[in-house]
Design a protein that fits this description.
It is a single chain. The protein has about 550 residues and is mainly alpha-helical. It has a five-stranded antiparallel beta sheet with strand order 4-3-2-1-5. A two-stranded antiparallel sheet has the order 6-7. The chain is elongated and about 105 Å long.
Length: about 550
């Protein structure tokens, strides 16, 4: 069964649930419009079909507008039909009747194969095509999905067509969803901006001012320009009202942009915090400058990509099974990155304790090897990690978009910070880590296996970086250079917060992430980062040990 037949079957099933008699009547009216030669009658019928919820009627209208509806005549019976699928090797195709969605058959009941070149397609004039377009646009107002209804209302309002007003106002009386109701009200007011009646126009301007309609900003600017150029036609009241409305909407846009940028900064800070947590602890514990930490993040991001593809193969590209891939990806990223960190610590790092310069050069070489390894396996191009359905979309508050994936990243970072705090303060491993950081010789003299503590801490830090990479895959591009884009920021967080300080790392990540995102729209990406770096350097001149100095005797000499 072809895709078109499936569509028709779904349309007929939908019709049977929403009132089959009404659908039959609307299809009959559609056939009547196709067969009549009176253009005005065709336009009238097409516009009357705007209230239809029959998917088949919508599909036929869309095909008619594109010249895809044909006429089959036999024994003085004229039957409009749509071609089914692709033509065969002889250029023939089956036909599906507009009236009932059934295949065209001959007198003996056999399915007809028609040569489209021998048949006539229903023609349309420019006026009829506009009427069909309007009807198709209005269909979306009755969609079962509120988001589609909202988008349709916004689109129709931007047309500023007075012909749409009765349908918009009628739908407004029936709408129950608050977000769609606002979109419909804004669409009605935006359309009224084009009204010749002064009172109607002023009422629309006042409403758009009260709701601070961002969608109507361009139309208000156009109206203000026309009122300024033709004061006798529009009047001083219109000019004053548009000035007031534009001023308030501009202020609202600035506030929304500021808070939106701040929110994006929080999500970036959350990723930096996850990545820098392990870096801060291992640097304070072992004195190791790990330049491969960014590549460990990259491995976590690619692990999320592999996990996504595995779940897609098992459960398909949608559904509850596929949507659980990101939870599994977080766990898999922690394990994979932790394993890489363990191998790195056992193979290289443990020979370089308290030798910052040698560790910097060695781990920088490891970072280059890991980047090239990823290029060999996955290619040099970026890969796409999609978002599960429960992380798709945004929560809109006063025109501030709070993306669900960024909200999750922030919440997950808070969760990890709490777990890390409990690990350091409520477990024996945490006690040993703090003891080794403050006085390694004394901890070793008291029986603490410092080599084992180093290994476990480095593995933990790498695992946290892997989860940071998985989170980063939801808000940034995943490619071989991902780690290099963030490793510098991670080191700035560690140095600014104070080596080995959990609280300092949190403050520094928040400060750098939010400030960077706020400055970039004003100064650009490069100058924004330079400004942040300059501010950090000046701060460190005042407090060389960072926001919170580490209580580690090993740093004193």
């Amino acid at each position: 069964m072809t895709f078109l037949r499936w569509t028709i079957l779904c349309a007929m099933l939908f019709g049977s649930m929403t009132g089959n008699a009404a659908d039959v009547a609307q299809r009959s009216r559609l056939v009547e419009a196709l067969l009549t030669d009176d253009e005005s009658e065709q336009i009238e019928i097409v516009r009357s079909l705007a209230v239809s919820r029959d998917l088949w009627v919508q599909q036929v209208l869309a095909a008619w507008r594109q010249g895809g509806v044909y006429l089959f005549e036999t024994n003085e019976v004229r039957t409009p039909f749509l071609p089914e699928g692709q033509t065969d090797s002889d250029g023939r195709v089956h036909g599906i009747r507009v009236i009932d969605g059934q295949l065209l058959k001959d007198a003996a009941g056999g399915v007809l194969s028609l040569l489209l070149s021998d048949l006539t397609a229903f023609d349309t004039s420019s006026k009829l095509r506009r009427a069909i377009k309007m009807t198709l646009d209005l269909f979306a107002l009755a969609d079962t999905n509120p988001k589609l209804r909202r988008d349709a209302a916004i689109k129709l309002g931007q047309e500023q067509s007075l012909e749409y007003l009765p349908f918009l106002e009628g739908r407004l009386q029936m709408e129950s969803d608050g977000e769609v109701t606002r979109a419909l009200s804004e669409a009605v007011a935006t359309t009224h901006l084009a009204s010749e009646d002064v009172a109607t126009r002023l009422g629309a301007i006042e409403y758009l001012r009260k709701v601070r309609s961002v969608n109507a900003f361009t139309f208000l600017e156009s109206l203000r320009k026309m009122a300024k150029e033709s004061p006798a036609l529009y009047g001083q009241e219109t000019l004053d009202a548009t000035d007031t409305a534009l001023g308030e909407i501009q202020s609202h846009i600035r506030r929304a942009t500021f808070f939106g940028t701040g929110f994006r900064g929080l999500s970036l800070a959350a990723v930096l915090l996850l990545a820098a947590l392990g870096l801060a602890i291992t640097f304070g514990l072992m004195g190791i400058i790990n330049m491969a930490h960014g590549e460990v993040m990259m491995i976590g991001a690619y692990t999320a990509y592999v996990t996504q593809n595995a779940f897609k193969g098992w459960f398909g590209a949608s559904g509850a099974g596929f949507d659980s891939f990101f939870v599994a990806a977080l766990f898999a990223s922690f394990v994979t990155a932790g394993a890489v960190g363990l191998a790195l610590e056992r193979g290289i790092i443990r020979f370089l304790y308290r030798r910052p310069l040698e560790s910097l050069l060695a781990t920088w070489g490891v970072s280059l090897v890991l980047q090239q390894l990823i290029r060999q396996i996955f290619g040099a191009a970026n890969v796409q990690v999609g978002a599960p359905s429960w992380l798709s979309g945004s929560w809109v508050i006063q025109d501030v978009l709070l993306a669900y994936n960024r909200m999750f990243v922030i919440g997950f970072a808070v969760f990890v910070v709490v777990l890390t705090y409990l690990l350091l303060t409520r477990t024996s491993l945490g006690l040993q880590i703090r003891a080794v950081m403050q006085n390694r010789p004394m901890a070793a003299a008291l029986g603490v296996r410092t080599d084992r503590v180093n290994m476990m801490t480095f593995t933990l830090g790498s695992g946290l970086a892997g989860m940071a990479g998985a989170c980063l895959s939801q808000i940034a591009n995943v490619g071989p250079s991902l780690g290099q884009n963030y490793i510098f920021d991670c080191f700035m967080v560690v140095v600014l917060g104070g080596v080995g300080s959990l609280v300092g790392t949190i403050y520094a990540a928040l400060g750098i992430g939010v400030t960077d995102q706020i400055l970039q729209p004003w100064l650009g990406a490069v100058m924004g980062k330079i400004t942040v770096l300059a501010a950090i350097i000046l701060f460190l001149q005042w407090r060389p040990s960072g926001i919170f100095a580490s209580r580690s005797r090993s740093l004193d000499g």
